[in-house]
Each structure stands twice: as structure tokens, then as C-alpha cells.
Amino acid sequence: MRLDVVTIFPEYLEPLDVSLVGKARARGQLNVHVHDLRAWTYDRHNTVDDTPYGGGPGMVMKTGPWGDALDSVLADGYETGSREPVLIVPTPSGRPFTQELAVELSERPWLIFTPARYEGIDRRVVDEYAARMPVYEVSIGDYVLAGGEAAVLVVTEAVARLLPGVLGNAESHQDDSFAPGAMANLLEGPVYTKPPEWRGRGIPDVLLSGHHGKIARWRRDEALKRTTRNRPDLIESCDPKAFDKKDREM
Ligand code: 6GU
Predict the structure, then answer these.
(1) 185 CA to middle of ligand 1, Å?
(2) Is the pLDDT assigned to residue 69 strictly greater than 80?
(3) What is the mean pLDDT of residues 67-77?
């Protein structure tokens, strides 16, 4: 998969060198290009923003640098054989970024991110590229960040760990919170490892029982409890058929 990020803060994307994403890059599973938007400014002050039409607070990112940057990134990608780009525009007014969208993006060969600062990018830039390729405006949650760069790190990590061969254990995202399947829409419950006692605290006996059925039942009960406590909205949105008689006894 190829990833391009155009930003006025290329340093903000340095975490893409470390951990899971960094290893995927080192193995050649991810081909990451971070570009400085100011490379496509031609005035002395490297201006990327201007005052909003219609007035109001803040500044709006100008069409010129974004258009030239994206044309250049697209030309380079196409020249080197990448196809079917998707543009991802991080914005608090986008659609919620979900595991489902992460899965969809992980199946795409080429993602281009345009994290903005200030009040956002001139709308015409999004409209222009939406006429040529799929564009996803995405928000990572109901709060406002100073810019989209942190959202790029979030989306990239969620997508990269789904790529074939990136996670050590291919099964380890099968029962992620939010993964499809029997535990669909339930949050994962607590986990334990050695030692069996720590500061007087033991671990639930069932986990030492070796009884796989009982362990699965316990995990599901814990997931139901945790989901009811932290995300009652997720329980509400479950298909009633997803629950069995024992679930209802919880
Ligand atoms: Cl993607 N960008 C900004 N600036 N704020 C956000 C966001 C994105 N998602 C949630 N808040």
C-alpha cells in the first residue's frame, strides 16, 4: 500500500517511522511519502492560508498550494505504478472513522491524506478531486483538534495493522473490539498474564480451569458488562439475534 501525506508540519508525521507502522514500512508492506505543503508555495512568505470569504474568524487554506501539491503527488504515484487513489480529508465535520471504514481503506492500494490547519481547506479543492477519485472526509471523534495530523496517525495505524502480514498473529484482530463476528459490537473484557498473584490480587479461577467453553462464556459475560457500562449505545445497536438466553441473564 502507498500512503501520501501533504502537511505544513511534516515533523508531526515522524511517528510513522516507529512501531507497527515503522516495521511495516521497513518490510516494504507500506510505502509512505510525507510532503511539505509549502513546497508548492511561490511567494516569499510561503503563504498557505488567507481570510475567509464572507468574513468570520480564522483563516482558510488556499486552493493553489493544495491543487499543485495533489497534482504532483498523483503524477508521481501514477508514474511509479500506483493506481486507484483515495483521498482522505481529516476534518471534525467528516463522517465518523470506524473499524468498518478502516477495513475498507485497508483494501485500497493508495491513500492520500490532506490534514489541514486553521479553519480548513477551500471547499473547491475537495470538490475538484472528488470529481476524479473517491474522497472520504473523516472525523476521529467528537472533539476539535488543532489540525488533522494526529487524525492521520490514528487512521494510518488502524489501517496498517489490518494489512496482510503486518500483525504477528493473523488471528489477533479477529476478536478486536468492533471486529465483525460473534462478539460484534462488544468491547473486549479484561485480560491477565503471569504472575498468578500480584500485590495480593489473583486472577479469575475460570481462566486457569482449562475449560474452553466456560472461558468463552466468561469472556462474553465480561464483554457484555464492560459494554453496558462504557458504551450502552453499542448494546442498543446490536441485532437482538446476536444475544442468547444466557446473555439476557446477565
Ligand atoms: Cl480529523 N481533524 C480535526 N482538526 N479535529 C478533529 C478531527 C479531525 N476529528 C475529530 N476532531
Answers:
(1) 24
(2) yes
(3) 98
ipTM of model: 0.98
Our mutation pick for probing the ligand 1 site, out of 117, 145, 152, counting the most ligand atoms within 8 A of Cβ, is: 145
Q: In terms of pLDDT, which residue wins out, 246 or 201?
A: 201
Confidence at 22, pLDDT banded by 50, 70, 90: very high
State residue 172's pLDDT score: 65
Contact 89, 136 (CB under 8 A): yes
Boundaries of every domain in the chain: 2-160, 174-250
Integer-rounded Cα radius of gyration of the chain: 22
Say which CATH topology domain 174-250 has. Trp Operon Repressor; Chain A (1.10.1270)
Among 245, 102, 244, 247, smallest CA distance to 180 is for: 102
User: Does the fold of domain 174-250 match that of domain 2-160?
Assistant: no
Instruction: Name residue, grid cell 465483525.
Output: 180
Q: Is 140 annotated as a binding residue?
A: yes
Q: Which residues line ligand 1 (CB under 6 A)?
A: 90-92, 139-141, 143-145, 147-148, 151
The mean pLDDT value for 13-40 works out to: 95
- CA of 115 relative to ligand 1 center, distance in Å: 9
Q: From the candidates 14, 17, 100, 119, which is the catalytic residue? A: 119
Dihedral (Cα; 109, 7, 69, 96), 10-degree rounding? 50
Measured in angstroms, how far is the CA atom of residue 98 from the centroid of ligand 1? 14
Residue 182 has pLDDT above 60, yes or no: no
CATH architecture label of 2-160: 3-Layer(aba) Sandwich (3.40)
